[in-house]
């Protein structure tokens, strides 16, 4: 078994054993969607949303939440904690280079975000008959670019934060920003027009997810912005990342 695979298995066990990461990252988004769907009025077509049910409209925002929780809270705190505890420095003296630990963390958290998204889609479909993404390919592209941008920002935080506490503080600001523009705190149709338009380009790109969920094609400019954020933040994280 390769060293990377062993690290992935170890990091996966640590993720599952962490009640905060496991509950907030994997289960809370689906539970939130089911909880909102339990309110009868939210399952009725709304004239404010052109006859679309609130539960259908809100599903992409719950996906934003699941991606942000994992990419902007769990990942930066864990990596900064490893640096603070000297784990990365000690690994530099072993055949298992710390780059592999970084790769293992990214793999585990990407899998967790994917599982959380699947739970949201499946639970919404089975419990409340929430439609599946009408444009599956476009949704997949928007999701991949969006999650790439969020995780790159998370790694940038991990690269510059000297301690786990500092990483959590910086990541919390980013997390709240993503939640606000993603329509989690307040539905996007209730936001001022200028704020909603800014939110179109804030990772992970809730408008692209919403468009493709409804069967439309994603906006190319929005996708390009997500790709640019992923590349810029990823390059910055790789350049500034400190192992100790």
Automatic annotation (TrEMBL):
The chain crosses the membrane at residues 20-42, 62-82, 102-124, 136-159, 166-186, 220-241. Pfam families: ABC2_membrane. The keyword Transmembrane applies. One of its GO terms (molecular function) is ABC-type transporter activity. Keywords: Cell membrane, Membrane, Transmembrane, Transmembrane helix, Transport. GO terms for cellular component: plasma membrane. InterPro entries: ABC-2_transporter (IPR052902), ABC2_TM (IPR013525), ABC2_TM_bact-type (IPR047817). The keyword Membrane applies. It is found in: Cell membrane; Membrane. Residues 20-244 form the ABC transmembrane type-2 domain. It is a multi-pass membrane protein. PANTHER family: DOXORUBICIN RESISTANCE ABC TRANSPORTER PERMEASE PROTEIN DRRC-RELATED, TRANSPORT PERMEASE PROTEIN. Belongs to the ABC-2 integral membrane protein family. This is Transport permease protein.
